[in-house]
Amino acid sequence: NTVDPFKMLDMYGADPLRWYMLTNAQPWDNLRFDETGVDEVRRKFFGTLYNTYSFFALYANVDGFTADLAREDSPGWVPVKERSEMDRWIISLLNTLTSNVLNAYENYDITTAGRLIQDFTGDHLSNWYVRLNRKRFWRGDLDEDKRAAYQTLYTCLRTIALLGAPIAPVYMERLYLDLGAGDSVHLELMPPVRKELIDKALEERMDLAQRCTSMVLALRRKVNIKVRQPLSKILMPVLDKSMEKKLAKVKSIILNEVNVKELEFIHDTAGFILKGIKPNFKVLGKKCGPRMKEIASALNDFSQEEIALVEKAVETGSYTLSLDGAEVLLEREDVTITSQDMPGWLIAVEGPLTVALDVTITDALLREGTARELINRIQNLRKDTGLEVTDKIRLVIEERKEVADALEDFSHYIASQVLATDIALAATPTDAHDVEWEEGTLSIHIEKS
Description:
Shape: globular
Structural class: alpha+beta
CATH topology of the largest domain: Isoleucyl-tRNA Synthetase, Domain 1
Helix content: 40-55%
Radius of gyration: 26 Å
Largest sheet: 4 strands, mixed
Number of domains: 4
Distance between the termini: 60 Å
């Protein structure tokens, strides 16, 4: 059952193999080698990092943005504290990452260092920062906000190259050189930690936004509603004012990410969200063994108001449950609180967060969803036909009722998103491309204006 190392090197490269072996298990644990794990590292980490750099390079080349413009002594430098909240968040997280990775290296903990770099690249830089800021790079003029976006992304990529160089020396050297950052990543010192740029409150708010987004997207998947299909409303019960303030500051981010029109905070869920409570037998059993049956019975009889009181109490401390002849202190990990879905709504609970999603799709929402689907297909056609990102186009789309309805309401929006100067409908467009559409295909003719 041996694995040929030279075959693995030829198939996946030295750096993905090295990264997998150093991050998959701590040195004192047995390494259960799995070829699929190497492939996953190559795709999910190195592939994601490559795609992030490619995105940066594509638009930087169009705008003439170079490494010289990313230096703090550059005339076009935008101070971090003057940048957008998203820029300040990722820079804060980058410095937190740098601190943690340097600490791991100093303790010879390469496994943790690699995992931290990997998580930052996939979960935060690519899947959150780049995705939420794409439109800033698409805009025409290289104004201050666009320069700030370039400088932020450049700093992140350069820092990843420096931090990852001990584990992936070849790949990080290539990334560093392609960024135009210097002669060699291996001639540089590790990046300093800029403590003045770390904003823990901002990191916490963005973490809440990411968690809420994940919960809503999971509810969409539950009923097979694509993210491109807009929905009308999210209701979010809040247990205290501080939580509401934090969520309010990232409200627009959540709504944009999940494609929902409105987010409303509610303070009383009685009569709307039906909740249940039960003991966590594994945890509470160790504390109250003989009385578990009595505790379970008492919790089972709780009203919605009592459950709400428990939920609020355990969020900041504990809840006192009165039993015959004794009192039991319940903490957050001692109980499990669940919510039941209601007609037209889906509900998810994760720790202190509860979201209720209205999954009713009106005719107006359906037309907007169709418009977004059209934009997606046309953007893919632009790539497949080799058009440049700045090329303007003319379109002729196969006439369908849902397509005509969407164009009636959203033709200007569609045109602005795909850079179309003209959009027409025809029963059978000539010289057309067939794209996947619902259960079949849709014909679209595309040409450069």
